[in-house]
Amino acid sequence: PRPPAAPMARMPDAPMPQGLALPPGTLPADTAAGLQNAISALRGALESRMDGLLWGGRQGPGREPAGAALFRSLLDAGFSTKLVRTLVERMPEGLDADAALAWARNELVTHLPVLGSEDTFLSGGVYALVGPTGVGKTTTLAKLAARCVAREGRDQVAMLTTDNFRIGALEQLQIYGRLMGVPTHSVRDAGELRRLLAELGSRKIVLIDTTGISQRDRHVAEQAAMLCDAGKTVRRLLVLNAASQGDTLDEVAHAYRNGVGEDVAGCIITKLDEASRLGAALDTAIRHRLPIHYMSVGQKVPEHLELARPDALIDRAFAMVERARALYTPSEADLASLWSSAKETPAVDPARRRQLLASAILRPQGGAAAVEAAQNLDDTLNWLDSDLACARARASWREYVSDGAGSSLSALADEPLAMARREFSAVCGRHLLVMHGKVGMKGDNLPGGTLLGSMLMSDRGAALAAPAQQLALAHGMLSSFAPGAAAQPDPAAALEARVRWLGGQLGQVPLVHMLEAGTSALWSALTEQGVSWVARSPGGLRVIQDECPTNLNAVGKSVGYLPVGQPGDMPGLRPVAGGRAAPLALWASGTEIGLPGRAGESAMRLVCARLIDTVSGEVAAQFFGLTNLPASQADAGTVARWLVLQDEAKAGFRYMANAWQALPAVDGAHALARQALMAGQLAAACWQLAHSPAAEVVRGPLSGVAGVDRVKLTGRMLPVALLKMYAMLEMADGG
């Protein structure tokens, strides 16, 4: 019989004993009860590790993990890294975790600016509520007006609105005005504002509702100029939505504070009832020195408006952490900065590495579920190390964040190409597929324009790399493989440039370029260059069959099909029908057609692919592909599988935009090109995680890293979770 193992809670820094795993069904009765203590001990070990990374070892090896615990608690509450680091650096030595949190709470209460006395506000003046759209300015103005009427009387209050764009804005405010007996007027320009303020000179308090303007709109300055030209001092109160992200709130505060004329007088925080964390709004008020006048906690007028109290706000911020763990904190950029700031760290043996990762990934959950997650952790790490796309993405990410200027273009493009050449014979049957696609890059933290990309995939359905990217912007096109070259005049020319470059880099590898449509001129040009291609074509494309004009839809109905297998026979293919999973069979047919105006040339090969619902017998999807490949190199069934894979690969290009948003921006030469390459490689890794059946073991731990349920690990969250996982691996490896 084996001797009993010492409880893990008493030896959190010792390696986990090997060979002591109990078979299923033989766990001791107190395992579930003791599991929480074990996880707590493991989390303590990670906190110690984070503390060492945070301080670079200058506090000595015996320092307690209070700094790391405080760092994590403040990040979870939503406070910015900048403010958190300032607090941790000022923290007195010798405090335990609870005492450190209490000290930080008192510091935040002391430094949170609030309205000293409501009498100051109600003493009179003209106040304008400003801010972006949808933050609750009109409702907050009605609440303020009701509060003023209760104190000063209806004959001392008036309301104005400059919002002449939003439908019903004036009517909404007029309804509130009639209920309170307060006059309400609309203002169109600075002249009307001066006139109305002069007419309302006997009113003690005038409240102005303004048009919601994005912080990135130049009209912010015009609005501030109009209020400054009102003939009276108009104090602006910035309305901050507590449910917004910290970066957004910081942009809003910066834009409205640096407009025209006098600075904003303070802020009002709204939608506290909708926010999952309050720290970001309070952080913005502290860093921008915006005295908080009121806080709005609901929709009711006037009940849901409270005078701001620093102790109540800070306590509420910490209480929110207990109800819901932060989803995006710490971000991968924070973890990457911790990793890169470490100067000297000792080597970590595999068992210790497993402890550190388990403490970071495992969530407090039921005993059986936690034990299963811990047992799957080794399989997760092995899969991430063995999958070519994920391993390459981690290596590229390490290079990308290794220094402030980021990595070179050659490091991010040459290594994936070398990997594709090296691994071709092991991962491909006969060809290496090049999926060409595009994705829009308009949105938050995106550069705009369109990203034209090429993703390398094996003919067995595995994504490998994305080493060729082109960013089409309004002022030109930027190519990752030729950043100094002249912009291509059109997408077809840009595609030809990618094809030529990849052909030169992978000359010894048999490539097949999978194109999204195209023209006969493009297909002819590629064929003349010796390029093998398959072009997906719409059913309405006009063609010639048996010397008669027709279209592909008609041809597809006239040919005979043969079953060529299940889509699931190729890893990565998980097609759906009608938005739901369905048992599908793949049928294919091949024939020859001609193109109008090209009668003197050889016929072109057409492959028709159908996905058939095996239950109803109906056609769930149909694809048409034109190709210059002879049947001896790729029969109809092979091309049909490639067409289905191409349709699925569209998700890979959407991952590129999601990965771009998750990446920390870098400076230096060719920053956009480097970020495009890094986003492409992450997209290949995300494709593998989402589509490879073998990646199922990884999705649970990734969900734990992201703090979401497995079913909620969406395409937008997948790059975030993967980057956090890479950062934790680097910390655990002693990076």
Helix content: 40-55%
CATH superfamily of the domain at 118-323: P-loop containing nucleotide triphosphate hydrolases
Q: At the third CATH level, what is the topology name of the domain at 118-323?
A: Rossmann fold
**Structural class label:** alpha/beta
Q: Choose one word for the global shape.
A: elongated
Main pleated-sheet profile: 10 strands, mixed
Counting DSSP E segments of at least 2 residues, the number of strands comes to: 22
Taking all residues together, what is the mean pLDDT? 79
- CATH top level label of the domain at 118-323: Alpha Beta
Distance between the termini: 40 Å
The CATH architecture term of the domain at 118-323 is 3-Layer(aba) Sandwich
Give the uncertain stretches in residue-range form. Answer: 1-29, 50-64, 323-348, 363-367, 571-580
Explain what this protein looks like in three dimensions.
The protein has 735 residues and is α/β, with parallel strands linked by helices. Among the domains are: 54 residues; 206 residues, Rossmann fold (3-Layer(aba) Sandwich); 98 residues, no CATH class. Helices cover 45% and strands 18% of the residues. The protein contains 25 helices and 22 strands. Strands 12-11-10-9-13-14-22-21-20-17 form a 10-stranded mixed β-sheet, sandwiched between helices. An 8-stranded mixed β-sheet has the order 3-2-4-1-5-6-7-8, with helices on both faces. A hairpin with a 5-residue loop joins strand 21 and strand 22. Helix 2 packs across helix 12. The radius of gyration is 31 Å and the shape is elongated.
